[in-house]
Design goal:
16 helices; alpha+beta; Dna Ligase, domain 1
Length: about 425
């Protein structure tokens, strides 16, 4: 038998059973020697050994957390921005913590137009329509913004659309404040409010309606065209205007009472005219109406006489005497022969006492040298002194009077000869 104890394996033979046994023993011995040479076990060694073979972790958890944080930050930022915008809007709309200031805002007639609007009942059912005056809200918002009263034009326009401010606002000049919220601003841009600027104007006795209306236009109260339209077509309910039919503005000549008035800029023409008529109405007493009835005349004829007195008299002392001359000549069937009546048709005449022939010969009912009776309308707007003189003329036999060029007053005469003799002594320019 072969002794296998000391047998040496032949590496050249693959089928040698000793090869496997040799390899196993050699490897085992090598492993033991390796582990025997290692230092004592270090708990951190495992971590160091893993450095060269890292384990890849999933990023899903980290990305989800970061995205959530970023979204939350975004929501918070948007909320802050929206809150700031809401505060700024509320500050302007509600006039909160705004710097106090005042400014004048003018809304001219030109930014208003008439428009048909539907009328609805409480249930929203259309019951009809009406004509309203509508403001250009874009202009109004711009004027308020330019004056520093509101900060955001678009916001005011939005408010106006919901509150129907375009039909509530009136033309005029308004003294407004930043302390007024949007609702108060709209309410204060209306006729009659304390915010409207007031202009005080005095109209002297003897001015014609045209002079008065032109003055109102120059003061930017309202246009002369609108005033004439209101005088012609508006139905004013006053006793002294009985039988004064609409259609002609001059039906109110003589009744536009001269006085001092407060007017709003952009005030409605009908309201302006009504102020004059109301002032006259407040001064006509029951005794005056009784005097008119006793004389068998009309208030209109009294005003016509008073208007002539207003233009002819040089002083208060002359009014009663001139009234007596007018009534005496009318009673005698004479023409009045008073040049002030024809000059009503020539308001631009700036000549002297002696009128040129083209005016003296002008054929018109206002030419009281040619036509008998009173002129068809008053020739100016008289004051109460002349109206009282027309109601209470002096009792005289005067039929003539002429201007004393030296004193600037009138001399009165009973007959034509005395009158002509005096006139011959005067040098009228």
């Amino acid at each position: 038998m072969i002794d296998e104890t000391n047998a040496v394996p032949d590496p050249e033979r693959e089928d040698d059973p000793l090869v496997d046994s040799y390899d196993l023993n050699a490897r085992q011995q090598a492993d033991e020697a390796f582990w025997a040479e290692l230092p004592p076990e270090d708990p951190e060694l495992e971590l160091e050994e893993r450095d060269y073979q890292p384990i890849r972790r999933s990023r899903t958890g980290k990305t989800g957390l970061l995205g959530g944080v970023m979204y939350a930050v975004f929501v918070i930022c948007v909320s802050i921005i929206l809150a700031c915008m809401a505060w700024m809007a509320a500050r302007d709309v509600l006039a909160l913590n705004k710097d106090p200031m005042t400014a004048t805002v003018v809304l001219p007639d030109e930014i208003f137009h008439e428009e048909e609007r539907l009328i609805k009942d409480a249930d929203g059912k259309v019951t009809g329509s009406r004509t309203v005056r509508v403001a250009d809200i874009d202009y109004v918002a711009g004027a308020l913004h330019d004056a520093g009263i509101v900060e955001y034009k678009l916001l005011f326009k939005l408010f106006a659309s919901f509150s129907h401010a375009d039909v509530k606002i009136d033309p005029g000049a308004y003294n407004l404040s930043t302390e007024l919220d949007y609702r108060a601003l709209v309410k204060n841009m209306q006729v009659g409010t304390a915010s409207m600027l007031v202009t005080k104007i005095t109209f002297p006795e003897g001015w014609t309606m045209d002079q008065i209306f032109r003055k109102l236009e120059a003061e930017e109260i309202c246009s002369a065209e609108d005033l004439y339209a209101a005088a012609a077509n508006f139905n004013y309910n006053f006793r002294f205007l009985e039988n004064a039919e609409t259609g002609d503005a001059h039906r109110l000549e003589g009744f536009i009472f001269p006085n001092t008035y407060d007017f709003y800029h952009g005030e409605q023409a009908a309201s302006v005219v009504n102020k004059f008529l109301t002032a006259l109405h407040s001064r006509v007493t029951a005794d005056m109406w009784a005097q008119i009835e006793n004389r068998g005349t009309t208030f209109r004829n009294v005003v016509i006489v008073a208007s002539i007195i207003e233009k002819e008299a040089g002083s208060d002392e002359e009014r009663g005497k001139i009234a007596s001359v007018i009534y005496n000549r009318l009673a005698a069937g004479m023409t009045l022969g008073m040049d002030s009546t024809i000059l009503y048709l020539f308001p631009d005449y700036a000549g002297g006492v002696q009128l040129p022939d083209d005016i003296l010969n002008y054929d018109s009912p206002y030419n009281t040298r040619m036509h008998h009776g009173l002129p068809p309308t008053p020739i100016c707007n008289p004051g109460m002194a002349s109206i009282q003189a027309a109601l209470n003329p002096e009792n005289t036999n005067y039929y003539y009077y002429a201007l004393d060029a030296e004193s600037g007053t009138h001399r009165f005469f009973q007959d034509a000869n005395e009158f002509n003799a005096f006139v011959a002594t005067q040098q009228y320019e």
